[in-house]
Design a protein that fits this description.
Chain lengths: ~150, ~130
């Protein structure tokens, strides 16, 4: 599908175009991560419309723009975003492979403290796996952690 | 036939008119149909990049296009069905950020009793608010 030149087009309108023109893509990948010792391991599930927009290219903003907005929101005096244009007016990302889209999604939706140091401790804090590798029944679910066989 | 309507106001048959921005700003800015208990997935959506399963009855929905702040309104319902038995519950906005919303769902047995978080087999989520 040829994507229109969306630089300068509001991201919302790009997503409307993508929804009308692209086939959703259900990825089999899941991202398991731990960001708190007080909480169980979390599972990130990609959205099929987001994946198709990433893989098509020309729609999703560069990741640095999301980080810039996240930095704004983390400031103590933050009230509301005033730099939304970073999502709308900048050059969008080109087409990604499924694996590249998952990496992009990790950098967007997983806390930086996890993915920047995912393998720095005595066991990984984050694992990319297939849906079928997750335990079918997570016994003691709210105490569930990344297991050795999942990390292997 | 392709076409385009450009209008600043919409007028009713009774002569009352409103700005089209009311209609645009009143649209749901994000929605998701989430299925599956335990490890859920997104069946259909708009303006959603991922969901994160945080544990029983606890899910974070992340947005592709950020909202202007965490001050938005959500609505949704969770439900499940097993044979002749069915149950529904509202969802609770636990934390709202511009880029994501963490929602909880569960059930209570007695009036004034605590809520037990629960994984219903389906959850529908909708958000109204202002985009960044």
């Amino acid at each position: 599908m040829n994507t229109p030149n969306f630089k300068g087009t509001h991201l919302w309108l790009r997503l409307v175009w993508a929804k009308e023109n692209l086939e959703p893509y259900q990825s089999d990948y899941r991202v398991v991560y731990e960001d708190s010792v007080d909480e169980c391991a979390k599972i990130l599930v990609p959205d099929p419309n987001f994946m198709s927009a990433c893989m098509n290219g020309g729609i999703i903003p560069k990741i640095e723009n999301y980080w810039a907005l996240a930095e704004d929101e983390a400031k103590p005096d933050f009230k509301k975003h005033t730099r939304g244009y970073l999502l709308h007016d900048t050059e969008p990302m080109g087409a990604m492979t499924e694996e590249e889209a998952i990496e992009y999604l990790i950098m967007k939706d997983v806390p930086k403290s996890v993915w920047q140091n995912w393998d720095s401790g005595n066991k990984p804090k984050m694992v990319i796996c297939r849906k079928g590798q997750l335990p079918q029944t997570r016994e003691w679910r709210n105490a569930w952690r990344i297991t050795d066989d999942l990390a292997a | 036939m392709a076409g385009k309507i450009i209008a600043d106001t919409i007028e009713t048959g009774a002569g009352a008119d409103i700005s089209t921005s009311y209609v645009v700003n009143g649209s749901a800015k994000a929605w998701a149909d989430i299925i599956g208990a335990g490890t859920p997935s997104v069946a259909n959506s708009n303006n959603v990049s991922s969901l994160t399963d945080n544990g029983t009855g606890d899910t974070t929905i992340s947005f592709t296009g950020s909202m202007d702040s965490g001050n938005y309104s959500i609505a949704g319902i969770a439900g499940g069905q097993s044979g002749v038995y069915w149950a529904t519950a509202g969802i609770n906005k636990y934390t709202g950020a511009a880029s994501s919303c963490r929602v909880l769902r569960g059930y209570t047995i007695s009036l004034g009793g605590g809520v037990t978080k629960f994984d219903y087999t389906e959850m529908d989520f909708m958000l109204q608010g202002d985009l960044a």
